[in-house]
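Why show two proteins at once? Because comparison is the fastest way to build intuition. When a single record is shown, students tend to memorize it. When two are placed side by side, the eye starts asking what differs. So, the first record is below.
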Amino acid sequence: MHVRARARDGVLGAAIIVPSAIGVLFIALSLAALLVHLSPRQLGAAFESPIVHQALGLSLRTSLASTLIIAVFGTPLAAVLATPFRGRGALETLVTLPVVLPPVVGGLALLLAFGRMGLLGKALSLVGISLPFTTAAVIMAQVFVSAPLYITVARSLFAHADRRLLEAAATLHASRTYTLWRVVLPPLVPALAGGLILAWARALGEFGATITFAGNLPGVTQTMPIAVYMAAQTDLGSAIAVAVALMILSYAALVAVRYVAGERARLV
């Protein structure tokens, strides 16, 4: 009986360990391939390319701007979605829809909404505002794609706020607005910061919606993912350099989530 139990446990253990090892190896091997194709000297030289500098600077500026916008508009929206009301499910589905949409579809939607002949683009053009193929279009594409990621995290945090704090605020006759901003929000700031870091990393890696709505103009709309795509066709060294930079920044973002946001953010 004991022999059968050990054999069974060995089979079950192998059924867990082997697929896990294969999955880790698949990811690690794919990422390691970025590092072995260029020597450190070649990689350093590739980073000196003007294309790399422009794409890196533009991506950092636009992703930080989009993250700030997401924080300002996404936090109140997440608090609203954490409050029960009729139609909340439909609103939440609408807000999170960009997560499952192909990014190029999101870019097309932005173009049809804010392009020169779009729903709002016609009115904007009358006052001399043209958004497509500008840096502002890059930020809009990043917000459209990455905001739902933060809102989903923040909504879950608000929904699981400490009920004892809410009850204490209610006992003191505090308004719901005051309770939200002065009682509920402060303890959640570290976890919300983790959600913002994830949204920033997603904005940094956005490609499909950006190239569809903002195009590919070096120094204006050519972000790091677009630079990788374009450079891979003519200059593999520059493409690898930008890809490695993206990988390092994304890895740093995930590490920051673990150590800045804390355990609660990781479990939400």
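Second record. Ask yourself what differs from the first in the token line.
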Amino acid sequence: MTDTTSDRFNEEKSAYTVRGTDQPDVDAGVAAIRNVVKTLPVRPGVYRMLDARGEVLYVGKARALKNRVTNYTQVSRLTKRLQRMVAQTRSMMIVTTATEAEALLLEAQLIKRYRPRTTSS
């Protein structure tokens, strides 16, 4: 019997990081996100936003990864809470899935595993 788990979820091997200070910086966060958007498929999946230390800021799911993650680059349309999160983002991890249902289940598992802190408004 072969291991199909590795085929089921395709976790991208590389994290895209913008080097620099640990201080929140909207431009650096948007640059990190834009680097990831260039490589994203229009497929279902889960994304993790990471800070400069590699800690998980946020776990989200999308039915079309490219479309969803692109929204974070339009800072003026985001709430203050999301603007702060983007300002702290320095890299992202992407996992593509075959279906939206798999993305939903994987998102729930990753939230339980990483317990990202919530940023107050």
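One difference worth noting in the second protein: The chain has five helices and four strands.
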